[in-house]
Design brief:
The protein is mostly helical and 82 residues long. The protein has helices at residues 3-19, 39-53, 59-63, 68-79. It contains 4 helices and no strands. The mean pLDDT is 94. Residues 2-79 form the Carrier domain. InterPro entries: ACP-like_sf, PP-bd_ACP. This is Acyl carrier protein.
């Protein structure tokens, strides 16, 4: 796992575990609503990832993301990591 992916996982787990304390990286495929995340949690996650990786997300494309895994894949694409 790359350091970029590790940093991203750490940030994502910080937000996800507020609502689902037992969640791990394996749960990133679960829909955000099944993890009890709301739109404010997703907005905060987006802001943290944008700041950490110096990128700007397209909110329309981000709205298409259903799970943390989708959000992670979207940001990995913005960063330029496959």
């Amino acid at each position: 796992m790359s350091s970029i992916e590790e940093r991203m996982n750490t940030i994502m787990l910080k937000i996800v575990r507020r609502r689902s304390p037992d969640a791990g990286v394996d749960d990133f495929g679960t829909a955000v609503w099944d993890l009890d995340l709301d739109s404010l949690d997703v907005a905060e996650l987006t802001e943290l990832l944008e700041k950490e990786f110096s990128v700007e997300a397209d909110l329309e494309k981000l709205d298409e993301c259903v799970s943390p895994a989708d959000i992670k894949a979207y940001f990995m694409g913005l960063i330029g990591t496959p």
